[in-house]
Amino acid sequence: YSYDLRQKVIQAIDKGMRKSEASRVFNLSRNTMDLWLKRREETGNYQASVGYQKGNRHKITDWKKFQEFAQKNGEKTQAEMTQAWEGELSRYTIGRGLKQINFTRKKRPMGTKKEMN
Q1: Cβ(69)–Cβ(85) under 8 Å?
Q2: Contact at 8 Å (CB) between 5 and 26?
Q3: What are the distances in angstroms from CA 16 to CA 5, 20, 34, 42, 89?
Q4: Residues 6+ away with beta carbon under 8 Å from 55
Q5: Rounded to 10 degrees, what is the CA torsion of 93, 95, 99, 100?
Q6: Which residues, 6 or more positions from 91, have their beta carbon under 8 angstroms from its beta carbon?
Q7: Cβ proximity of 103 and 74 under 8 Å
Q8: Which positions ≥6 away from 31 have C-beta within 8 Å?
Q9: If phi over 0 gives left and psi between -120 and 50 gives alpha, with beta otherwise, what is residue 68?
Q10: Which tens digits make up the pLDDT trace of 58-91?
């Protein structure tokens, strides 16, 4: 939420508006307002948090090395690839990495044609 909206809500509550009424007027949950008020008590400010991690921390950082690894171990299953990888990766991480580099185990470039009986 914007800092402007946070200011309006906090000022309204400070002037005596009940939290339930403020939640209806500003279309916010009471929990959100309680978190803002708690943050104001603890830090003196109710701005949004910044600098926190967004998304996953990627365990595969060297994509060139991973692509070479996939070419070399492409015939193995993902579980076997986790055993062959030097570091610690789950088979799900291996699967996401293979998808990221567009690696496929398909041997035929085209689908097979169905013959009519």
Answers
A1: yes
A2: yes
A3: 17, 12, 15, 21, 54
A4: none
A5: 20
A6: 78, 79, 81, 82
A7: yes
A8: none
A9: alpha
A10: 788 888 999 999 989 888 888 888 898 888 888 8
Residue 112, classed as helix, strand or coil, is: coil
Name the token pair of 72: 């070399």
| pLDDT band with cut points at 50, 70 and 90 for residue 111 | low
The one-letter amino acid at 24: R
Reduce the DSSP state of residue 94 to 3 states and report it.
helix
Alpha helices in the chain (DSSP H): 3-14, 19-26, 30-43, 63-72, 78-84, 91-100
